[in-house]
Amino acid sequence: MSTLRRQFLQHLAQTSDIPMLLQIESAKGSFLYDSDGKQYLDLIAGISVSVLGHGHPDVVAAVKAQADRYLHTLVYGEYVLSPQVELASLLASLLPSSLDSVYFTNSGSEATEGAMKLAKRFTGRAEIIACREAYHGSTQGAASLMWPTTFTQAYHPLLPGIRHISFNKEEDLERITPATACVVVETVQAEAGVRLPQNAYLEKLRKRCTEVGALLVFDEIQAGYGRTGSLWAFEQYGVVPDVLLLAKGMGGGMPIGAFVASREVMQVLGHEPPLGHITTFGGHPVSCAAALATLRFLSENRVWEQVREKAALFRQLLVHPAIREVRNAGLLMAVELGEFDFLRKVILKCVEHGVITDWFLFNDQSLRIAPPLTISEGEIKMACTVIVEAIESVLGSHRP
After folding, report:
1. Could you give all domains of the chain from N- to C-terminal order, each with its CATH number?
2. Are β-strands 162-165 and 127-131 bridged in parallel, bridged antiparallel, or unpaired?
3. Measured distance CA(385)–CA(362) in Å, rounded
4. 191 with 207: CB under 8 angstroms?
């Protein structure tokens, strides 16, 4: 084992006892390169982060230019910083008119935390409702929204006042009442293994929230930024949330998140008391510059218009008797294979042959595919060939 890997295991806090231990030296486009020069086609893009691929020239140039101007100046919301202002203005121009006020954070978890506080403050209510098998972050407030408690039980008690409903289960909507501050829901359930809304579910959810005065919060931390085939996933369902959560693909590889609402809703954080929500590094100028370059490239080139065609190619090529189902919302895809032991062996075989994939928090029976939106047709064909051959190889090793 290399010295760097030993130090990684000794001095970096570990999140599991089975880290991949790939020693990455560089990354470009759809590929990562390890310390031996081996290339890996990155089919998960850092978990839906690198929407324009690794090291996109526009993003890198923006980071370098801003680093030459200034880095941190003061806590968020005090100085007028052009990367923040330009990014917020561009976001507002690309969102419905009711989503015109942006609060920048460092991550998706922090965006969730901010939205939870915002909903409680605006409505004066304490109850928050989330969906089962949804993931909104790992900080204590965001983790309180998670059910089942597989990943949170060891840290209980978490926040009180959290209730859960099942995604797409219309009868559960009656649990949303005048006591509910907000309902936090993924526009497309990602960590459940890519589950799309059915039977006008989001429209019915919107109607119920409006009836009882609860804020509707859409989590597009994974589904936003073109991944599902439109800039924002909610555009495909004709439903506008009261609050929108963004992160992951937002920074093109740099850390940034945001919660977005109307000015009417957002202004409650600024008085009685003032400084109702504060952050030191949220909206860091370099991250905002990267996010601005990412959003400009996405919108000017309408990158999302290529997503459905690329997803269709994946579906066309991922054919094998062992594949039970392929579910997708654009280039957020789940390839269901069955038992975790089999799935993990397929994943390891893919990595061995230079393709990185993964599974989902609440679905360990499916391969995760969420590549850079800029992935080429040739790269898709390569990826699918490796996956299908990996499936066959693992099956072959179990045959008598």
Report:
1. 3-56+303-398 (3.90.1150.10), 57-301 (3.40.640.10)
2. parallel
3. 27
4. no
Residue of 327, 118, 355 whose CA lies nearest to 216:
118
> Could you give the CA distance from residue 18 to residue 1 in angstroms, rounded to a whole number?
15
| pLDDT string in tens for the chain (400-residue length) | 788 888 888 888 888 888 888 899 999 999 999 999 999 999 999 999 999 999 999 999 999 999 999 999 999 999 999 999 999 999 999 999 999 999 999 999 999 999 999 999 999 999 999 999 999 999 999 999 999 999 999 999 999 999 999 999 999 999 999 999 999 999 999 999 999 999 999 999 999 999 999 999 999 999 999 999 999 999 999 999 999 999 999 999 999 999 999 999 999 999 999 999 999 999 999 999 999 999 999 999 999 999 999 999 999 999 999 999 999 999 999 999 999 999 999 999 999 999 999 999 999 999 999 999 999 999 999 999 999 999 999 998 765 4
Query: Token pair 């408690």 is at which residue?
Result: 149
The secondary structure of residue 71, as a DSSP letter, is S
Q: Is the pTM of this model over 0.85?
A: yes
Amino acid code (one letter) for 84: Q
Those residues with Cβ within 8 angstroms of residue 67's Cβ, 6 or more apart along the chain or in another chain? 286
**Alpha-carbon gap, residue 337 to 339, rounded angstroms:** 7
